[in-house]
Amino acid sequence: MPTMADVARSAGVSVATVSHVLNETRPVLPHTRQAVLDAIEELGYTPNTLARSLVTSRTRSIGLAVSAISNPYFTEILQGVEAAALEKGYSLLIADPHDDPGHERKVVQLLHERRVDGMIVAPSADPRELLAYLGRHAVPAVLLDRVIDGRADTAPRFDQVCAENTEPTARLVTHLAGLGHRRIGLVAGLPGLSTTSERVAGYRQGLAAAGLPLDERLVVPGNSESDGAGEATAALLSLPVPPTALVTANNAMTIGALRALHAHGLSVPDDIALCCFDDFAWAELFSPRLTAIAQPSREIGAEAVRVLLERLASPDRPARTVRLPCAFVHRTSCGCREESGGRAHGPSTMSSPSAPNTPSPPGTSRKEPSRDRRRR
Questions:
Q1: Structure confidence at residue 156 (pLDDT)
Q2: Other CB atoms closer than 10 Å to residue 247's CB: what's the count?
Q3: How many CB atoms lie within 10 A of CB 150?
Q4: What pLDDT, on a 0 to 100 scale, did the predictor assign at position 364?
Q5: pLDDT tens per residue, range 125-179
Q6: H or E segment and range at residue 130
Q7: Quick one: how far is CA 200 from the chain centroid?
Q8: How big is the CA angle at 250 (ends 372 and 180), to the nearest 5 degrees?
Q9: CA–CA distance, 284 with 91 (Å, rounded to integer)
């Protein structure tokens, strides 16, 4: 089996230079670095990861703790994390906390005991044990998808990476209001999650921008899962004056809402319009095609790795929160008509939709309510 000395001899450099290339402990001239990499490839040299970790106190591994790994949103985030980690020479250890605070702390402790260099964690609705453990053991960590201590006057304790939530949700509401809807329901997420509170805030913001009153009965938690969303949708439909449009706050809840609407014999968008937060691969295959907010899932995962590696390189720098913009994907479940080329288009009297990532500003013109049987 070739050794580091063999690589050094083949590349015409010192063993120390080979070590610097492998461990990225000191800058190496590009042509020298390439000579070392070529020698490694030619000889089939495999670094001794265990020995290297004993020398550097680094394992070049990252712990990832996210719930609902089967959810397409988190699956794409995982792909982004894995690709970015691999590019930088890091391996990935993955655990599912199941959105349970006690289990969350246990899996994070297990990852820590595996001597990962840092962690990327999507916190549960009650992350107190998690944050206490990370802080007590000074674990380099990036909080993913959910924000802790997000008030403007409070510095975050940990680096955080997530998508914008408030303005994109407001965009869905103002779009539906622009189509004439005056009673817009929200199937909200699991209480306690920052994504839930921010999307509820966006819903309220959208109503205010459209000049519509807030009716608290139109906001029902679907608990971020399909069955809960089905129950929430049924509750909304049972109101004395049910909504004429729905916003669902994640992809799993969109599926549950659609099932409930079908069970009640309602057609989208003829009987009730639907917009959703979270785009997903098969949204184009639904009939009608789903108008949605698309999150940059893979970019979120890749950015979390970049932020974590920056933290490892500069442990004392202030924590920061990075938010990535979302895109408004305009299709037909909102009630806009399909035109040639597969694009949705609103009524001819309606203003053109705003560009993606930009919420409709207050004061945008709105079409008067249509006179069908659901909107009188």
A1: 62
A2: 32
A3: 14
A4: 32
A5: 899 899 999 999 999 999 999 888 644 444 568 999 999 999 999 999 999 999 9
A6: helix 128-136
A7: 16
A8: 20
A9: 34
